[in-house]
């Protein structure tokens, strides 16, 4: 749990999963993932509607139009509008970006709930939100690792086939096309998770009145590495770069990500998180 409300937690996690599927469609025109994202987004809308109505009935002693209700209503409206756009208009990417804003609003709003128990102090809430940041980052790192392994296997098989070196290991490996596709899917999941993790971290830093931490070298190195992954997706979408070169680029991006992780000990931002 990251808040004192199971229903709010369910909204956060379902919303994040929906964004994950939508992001898969953004980077690879995956219509199946888009349908999954839309279905989860409908579920988010249902959960938000129930939460909003139940809250207004249960907490009549709290002003209905407090900042918490306003922000939650704003997020609910963004979800509603995006669903209408998705249903009646074929506008690519708009649903993903609109709901990225809506998700950020829900994260910010967690610290503004006037009905939160007194025992749930602000510093505790901040730590719980940071745990969400860590969970997203860990999932992203795992996905990037799997993607890099598939890219490494692609490079190995490509070189063996090029030199016509046949062996039992070569015959047991998946095809080059399958390995390239699996590597891409894993990288797409990893990038979406890291973007969510970074968004959560930025929100917490700003709410903690520590905006100077955004200038930390580690933060910018993370942005650079994620941008390198963005270049990978750009070249893959254009289809003008060979699978071998894409595998090399993906492997290099993962190496940079590992180096970036090693530099955590030099990061003011991560020392503040652990303090």
Describe the structure.
It is a single chain. The model has no long low-confidence stretch (mean pLDDT 80). The chain is 79% helix and 0% strand. The protein is built from ten helices and no strands. It is globular, with a radius of gyration of 21 Å. It has helices at 6-28, 31-58, 67-88, 94-109, 122-162, 168-172, 176-207, 217-238, 243-262, 268-274. The chain has 275 residues and is mostly helical. It folds into two domains: 6-119, Four Helix Bundle (Hemerythrin (Met), subunit A), CATH 1.20.120; 125-274, no CATH class.
Ordered list of secondary-structure elements with their pairings:
Blueprint: H1 6-28, H2 31-58, H3 67-88, H4 94-109, H5 122-162, H6 168-172, H7 176-207, H8 217-238, H9 243-262, H10 268-274
Helix pairs in contact: 1-2, 1-4, 1-7, 2-3, 3-4, 5-7, 5-9, 7-8, 7-9, 8-9
Q: Estimate nothing, just give the exact number of structural domains.
A: 2
Low-confidence stretches: none
How large is the radius of gyration?
A: 21 Å
What fraction of residues sit in β-strands? under 5%
- Structural class call reads mainly alpha
Q: Looking at the structure, what is the overall shape?
A: globular
The rounded distance between the terminal residues' Cα atoms is: 21 Å
Keywords summarizing the entry:
single chain, 275 residues, mainly alpha
Task: Describe the structure concisely.
With 275 residues, this protein is mainly alpha-helical. The chain has helices at 6-28, 31-58, 67-88, 94-109, 122-162, 168-172, 176-207, 217-238, 243-262, 268-274.
């Amino acid at each position: 749990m990251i808040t004192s409300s199971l229903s709010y937690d369910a909204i956060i996690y379902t919303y994040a999963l929906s964004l994950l599927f939508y992001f898969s469609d953004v980077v690879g025109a995956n219509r199946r993932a888009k349908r999954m994202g839309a279905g989860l987004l409908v579920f988010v809308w249902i959960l938000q509607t129930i939460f909003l109505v139940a809250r207004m009935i249960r907490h009549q002693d709290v002003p209905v139009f407090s900042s918490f209700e306003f922000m939650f209503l704003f997020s609910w409206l963004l979800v509603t509008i995006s669903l209408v756009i998705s249903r009646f208009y074929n506008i690519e990417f708009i649903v993903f970006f609109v709901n990225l804003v809506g998700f950020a609003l829900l994260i910010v709003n967690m610290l503004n709930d006037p009905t939160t128990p007194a025992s749930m102090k602000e510093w505790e809430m901040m730590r719980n939100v940071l745990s969400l940041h860590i969970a997203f980052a860990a999932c992203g790192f795992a996905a990037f690792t799997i993607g890099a392994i598939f890219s490494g296997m692609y490079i190995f098989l490509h070189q063996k086939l090029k030199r016509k070196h046949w062996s039992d290991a070569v015959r047991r490996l998946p095809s080059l096309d399958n390995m390239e596709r699996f590597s891409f899917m894993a990288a797409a999941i990893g990038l979406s998770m890291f973007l969510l993790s970074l968004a959560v971290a930025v929100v917490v830093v700003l709410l903690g009145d520590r905006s100077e931490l955004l200038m930390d070298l580690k933060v910018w190195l993370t942005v650079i590495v994620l941008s390198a992954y963005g270049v990978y997706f750009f070249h893959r979408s254009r289809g003008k770069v060979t699978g071998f070169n894409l595998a090399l680029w993906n492997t290099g991006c993962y190496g940079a990500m590992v180096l970036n992780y090693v530099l955590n000990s030099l990061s003011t931002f991560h020392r503040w998180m652990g303090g």
